[in-house]
Specification:
CATH class: Mainly Beta
Largest sheet: 6 strands, antiparallel, barrel
Radius of gyration: 15 Å
Strand content: 35-45%
Distance between the termini: 32 Å
Shape: globular
Strand order of the largest sheet: 2-3-4-7-6-5
CATH superfamily: predicted glycosyltransferase like domains
CATH topology: Thrombin, subunit H
CATH architecture: Beta Barrel
Mean pLDDT: 83
Length: 124
């Protein structure tokens, strides 16, 4: 099997029930989570938006806990704080809390949106 580009882009379809403030984009990169209760955890991201990120983890992290996230995007390395907002099996949703270090996230999401628009059949 061919290796997949780790910066996979593409929209995640949102239903009317799943309406969100910011669109989510597929993203598959390694992530480190520093948890007060669980220590340093390693995971892999699933998707990202300007307000949060989802990741697959092997160890349970309590919903509501504030954690430190560390991951690399095409526009740079990000270290920020986030709240664990949801959990479904091994998939966790994190809401970014710090706005000072999020320019790389905003730039990445803008780039993914442009790439998505260029691939859209309606844009031709």
């Amino acid at each position: 099997m061919e290796a997949e580009n780790k910066f996979t882009t593409g929209p995640l379809l949102a239903t009317a029930i799943d309406a969100r403030r910011h669109p989510r984009f597929k993203l598959g990169v390694d992530i480190s989570i520093n948890s007060r209760t669980c220590g340093l955890l390693k995971g892999h991201t699933v998707d990202i938006s300007q307000s949060g990120i989802a990741a697959m983890l092997r160890i349970e992290v309590p919903v509501g806990e504030i954690v430190e996230l560390d991951f690399t995007l095409p526009f740079g390395r990000v270290t920020t704080y986030a709240a664990v907002r949801q959990r479904s099996a091994f998939r966790y949703g994190f809401q970014f809390l710090e706005l000072s270090d999020l320019e790389a996230i905003r730039s990445t999401c803008r780039q993914f949106a442009v790439e998505q628009a260029l691939r859209s059949p309606d844009s031709h």
